[in-house]
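Contributing new complexes? Match this layout with adenosine-5'-diphosphate.
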Amino acid sequence: MGEAPAFLVDDLQDGPLNGLELNNGTCKTTTVVGEKTYVTVGADDGTLSIDVQIFDRSLGEWVHPTVLGTKPLSCNGHSAVLFENRILVLKKGSKSDDQIWFLEVDTEYVRQQRKKLGTEVVAWSKGVIGNAEKPIVISGPSGVGKGTLISMLMKEFPSMFGFSVSHTTRAPRNMEKDGVHYHFTEKSVMEKEIKSGKFLEFASVHGNLYGTSVEAVEVVADAGKRCILDIDVQGARSVRASSLEAIFIFVCPPSMEELEKRLRDRGTETEEQILKRLRNAQAEIEQGKSSNIFDFILYNDNLEECYDRLKKLLGLDGFVATSPKSAPREINLPTDHSVSKIDDKIIISCISSGLDKESKNS
Ligand SMILES: Nc1nc2c(ncn2[C@@H]2O[C@H](COP(=O)(O)OP(=O)(O)O)[C@@H](O)[C@H]2O)c(=O)[nH]1
Ligand SMILES: Nc1ncnc2c1ncn2[C@@H]1O[C@H](COP(=O)(O)OP(=O)(O)O)[C@@H](O)[C@H]1O
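Output block (do not edit by hand):
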């Protein structure tokens, strides 16, 4: 809670001015949601992120929210319009994969975070230009075969699926590459990034921190691919509660003996780590089977049969992988545009950049 930013008081009294470029090289938008006015302010030099302030009319004061998610860098101005329980923010003159953003102001995720943190909360998420299907969350105990099944899927359908590369504080295994299998991170760095709202979800698993950054999922969606997340049950529970709509699959071993055999034969863990993973497996399997998190439970007994069942539930049985899907269509918003909403349609009004500069095209 605090003082009103000096340059805004008059504008708020005059009503919202969308995308107004202020004299000092900044651009702001105001969006009214119930008793609150959300103000986004961006400098036009592209070095700072768009700032969010809230004026709460019921309290008669300014509130500085905790801002979660990756913040968009400002550019040559931006415009905003309320779209259900989030504000659609369109950046002017930026690249097509960076034009469309959402500021979640009253989604289920934001409401939960508000309760958890005890502060006002907003969350940024980047709009994606692809039209990929719902992400797939795959969970299961260590050694059950999640990685193997995911690799088979990605190998058979390379243009269809993309892997969400998690962050972890565990040490890399021999064949693991930073940025491909995981983003290997220092604990202190990851803890700081968790506080700054970088992660969609995170959890402590087998004594290490693991987390899915908002960006890891956006990168895949921006490429027009369906995102696959390999995360534990706690992470799956958090994603269920988040604004990311996904399909949740739990992979079960045929028996604890077989799980132990697979873990030992993989040869990537020390004896101590194997025992820890086996101890945790029992509880994970119970939660996986009994909680309401998962849409499907897959038994990974015979690998080929399990893979066939996985493809079936993803609607891929009999699907012939052909040439890569065409890249997502580029939407090129001109530098000069404004945005408004009529019924359930978003109208982007563009000021032509051709000869007739004054003519307005919608
Ligand atoms: N919550 C969460 N769990 C993760 C994430 N990435 C990996 N995990 C889980 O962490 C556990 C350990 O992963 P890892 O160390 O690679 O071992 P593995 O499962 O035996 O291959 C597995 O259950 C993964 O599904 C993440 O980003 N978030
Ligand atoms: N259905 C299966 N039958 C036998 N071995 C399997 C099967 N699925 C996976 N494996 C093997 O079990 C080990 C663990 O699999 P992995 O995919 O690394 O598990 P996770 O990613 O769940 O920890 C690997 O050596 C893999 O080759």
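Reviewers usually confirm one structural detail per submission. For this one: Residues 139, 142-143, 147, 166, 170, 201, 203, 205-206, 210-212, 230-232, 234-235 surround guanosine-5'-diphosphate (ligand 1) (CB under 6 Å).
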